[in-house]
């Protein structure tokens, strides 16, 4: 069982990150604006026909979510690295993977959860049939934590490289591909009435595996980057 002092440190870290994020509201608003712009402009490019839009809506929403997760992701640990907070995190009497998991949770609250909330509006704009809405929301609930965890790994690996946004994207995009395939396949299966339990269980397993291993990888990457 994690000691009470550990929980106190984690809560303090999460509270601090939330306060910092609220001071930089553009970091929260920009990904949401990006999603809204893409789902609003996409029908103009391919035409407003519901047959075409409904068939590709799930893929468009998920690709948009992937790209939105990358916006500003390089700052996940960058500010802490520049002001010395990252070194203090290593020296705290708390397991570094626990603090890394807290950072992942904050990233999901600020970027993943708003995307889940915005998903019904995106589905409506892209004319996704109602039969696929619940599956889309479920895949986003299971998939966005994976996005946050993988983003944290990439951000920790590139934190000491200055402007590492391009490198971060190159590192993460191949890791996002399996998630994109299974999530889009689940929604497409729901639209044709096929069972989607297999895809959903697989996404849930990926989420558990990623959230278990990612904090360890982030902690190792932070130690290498700081030292």
Automatic annotation (TrEMBL):
InterPro entries: Cyt_c_biogenesis_CcmB (IPR003544), Cyt_c_CcmB_bac (IPR026031). One of its GO terms (molecular function) is heme transmembrane transporter activity. It holds the Pfam family CcmB. Its main location: membrane. It is found in: Cell inner membrane. The keyword Repeat does not apply. GO terms for biological process: cytochrome c biosynthetic process; cytochrome complex assembly. Keywords: Cell inner membrane, Cell membrane, Cytochrome c-type biogenesis, Membrane, Transmembrane, Transmembrane helix, Transport. Coiled coil: none annotated. GO terms for cellular component: plasma membrane. It comes from the Bacteria. The chain crosses the membrane at residues 28-46, 52-73, 94-124, 136-159, 166-187, 199-222. It is a multi-pass membrane protein. Required for the export of heme to the periplasm for the biogenesis of c-type cytochromes. Belongs to the CcmB/CycW/HelB family. This is Heme exporter protein B. It comes from Pseudidiomarina salinarum. The lineage of its organism: Bacteria, Pseudomonadati, Pseudomonadota, Gammaproteobacteria, Alteromonadales.
